[in-house]
Amino acid sequence: MLKTRLLTAAVLIPAFLLALFLLPEPYWSLLMLAASIIGLWEWSNMAGFKPAVKYLYLAATALGGVLLTFGHGPENAFLQEYALFWGLPVAALFWIVLAPAWLMSRARIRNVYLMLLSGWILVLPLWLALVSLRAITPWILLAVMLVVWIADSAAYFAGKRFGRHKLAVHISPGKTWEGVLGALVAVGLYGWALCVAFNLNLFIIPGFLILAVFSIMGDLFESLIKRQSGFKDSGTLLPGHGGVLDRVDGLTSSLPLAALFLHLPLYYQAWMYSA
C-alpha cells in the first residue's frame, strides 16, 4: 500500500509542478476544472444522485466552467469577476458557520437539491482559488498548498506516534488531538522558515495556522460524508490515495479562505465603487 502511494505521488507531484509553472493560464484553468468535475463525480456517487441528475449536474458545471475560462468580451469579464466576488465569500461562510454545525450534529442531508448545492460549494470555490491564486503567482499558490500538505503529513505521523486522545471518534477514528498539535507545530515551523528565508512578515504564521485548522475541518467533513455514504474512499482514480476528493479535502476548506484574504483589496475597491 505504501509503495503504491509513493509511486502515485512520484508521478503526480512532478506533473502537477510542471502544470503549475508552465501551462498557459486558460489551460491551467481547464485542467483544474477537469479535476473539479472528477471531484463532483465522486461527490455525486457518495450523495447517491440518480444517473440523469448526475450527468446534468456535471454537464452544467463543465459548460459554465468552459464559458468562464474561454469566453471573451465585457460580459464574460463581468461573469468572471462576479463568480470570484461571490464564490469565495460563500465558501468562507460555509466553512466558518455551516460546516462546523454540520460536523457537530453529524446530520445526514438527504435532500438532493441541498446536496447538489453543497457539492458546488465544496468544489467550485476551490477551482476559483486555484485559478486566481496562480494568476497572482504560482509561488503563492504552492506556498499555501504546502501548508495543507505539511499539516496532513505531520498530523498523520504525530498521531501515529503520540496519538492518545481522539479528535472525532464518530467521524474519523484515526484522527487525534496529538495529530492536530503535530500539524500546528509543523505548519508554524514552515511559516517561520519562510519568514526567515524571504524576510516576510511574521503575521503569516498565525494565518498559516488558521489555514491548517480549516484544512483539518475539510478532511473531517469529507470523512463524515464518506462514512454516511458507506464509502472508504471517494474514488479509485489515484492508486493508494483513493479519489480526487481524498487528495484535496483539506484544500477545499483552506484554499478559498486564503484566496479571499489575498483578494480583500479587490472587495474593498468594489465596495467603495458601489458606495
UniProtKB/TrEMBL annotation:
Top-level lineage group: Bacteria
The keyword Nucleotidyltransferase is annotated on this UniProt entry: yes
Main location: membrane
Keyword Ion transport on entry: no
One Pfam family from the record: CTP_transf_1
Protein family membership: Belongs to the CDS family.
PANTHER family to which the protein is assigned, alphabetical: PHOSPHATIDATE CYTIDYLYLTRANSFERASE
Name of the molecule in the record: Phosphatidate cytidylyltransferase
Source organism of the structure: Methylobacillus rhizosphaerae
